[in-house]
Amino acid sequence: MTDQPVAPDVEQVLKSGYRQLYRLLAARITVIAVLVGVPIWLNRSGAEATFFLALPLVAAMVFFVLTVYRIRCGVRLVQCARVLRHYPLEFHTRVVKKSVLHAEYADVYTLRISTRGESGAATMLAINAAGKRRWPGGVENGAWFAGDFPFGGVLVVPGNETLLFLNPEDWEKSAKRRAEAGAERIARAERAGLDKRNWKQPIMWYGG
């Protein structure tokens, strides 16, 4: 039997998540600045103000609104930090990505998480806590979980230290398991902010 790998440093993982978020924001701010700046520059250079010249400004406004909405609904780093304060990391040797929905605020992954040699597997919805849409990869040989499956939690992907924030796949169907969890587990989930569904049910834009 192989030894369990060494758990990642929680503080370093959170710092990595914030770095990913800052890079995402910097890229989006750059796009918005270009969309706003080009029409202004052309206008000052003598270009005639036309409908087509205003189109990049409209696009910039739409992109800004979508960015704010995505950050508000999709970024979960603060919630991850709260979960990691109340739950230890436990290694699960089998994490399978079943599907992905490209929702309006994040890519929402359906994962099955289990441990080889043990019965039962949890099916969870996951989003990248830093707001990135690209699947991080690296879970083929397992990942670190902190939380309580009927309530949700955090998955730390080994290697790239990506944080995925988790909710049960079907929040309503998990209600009985949460109610039967016992006072101690329920109180712990409340302290960790896992006592309620933590993001909107995803509306599929496209998926597979």
List the helices and strands and how they pair.
Blueprint: H1 10-44, H2 51-74, H3 77-86, E1 90-92, E2 94-102, E3 107-114, E4 122-128, E5 143-148, E6 152-156, E7 163-168, H4 175-179, H5 183-191, E8 206-207
Antiparallel strand pairs: 1-5, 2-3, 2-8, 3-4, 4-7, 5-6, 6-7
Descriptive notes:
With 208 residues, this protein is α+β, with helices and mostly antiparallel strands. The protein contains 5 helices and 8 strands. Strands 1-5-6-7-4-3-2-8 form an 8-stranded antiparallel sheet. The chain is elongated. The two termini are 36 Å apart. The relative contact order is 0.16.
Number of strands: 8
Query: Structural class, please?
Result: alpha+beta
What's the order of the H and E elements?
Answer: HHHEEEEEEEHHE
Give the termini separation: 36 Å
Mean pLDDT: 86
In short, what is this structure?
This protein has helices spanning 10-44, 51-74, 77-86, 175-179, 183-191; strands spanning 90-92, 94-102, 107-114, 122-128, 143-148, 152-156, 163-168, 206-207. An eight-stranded antiparallel sheet has the order 1-5-6-7-4-3-2-8. The longest helix is centred in the N-terminal third of the chain and has 35 residues, at 10-44.
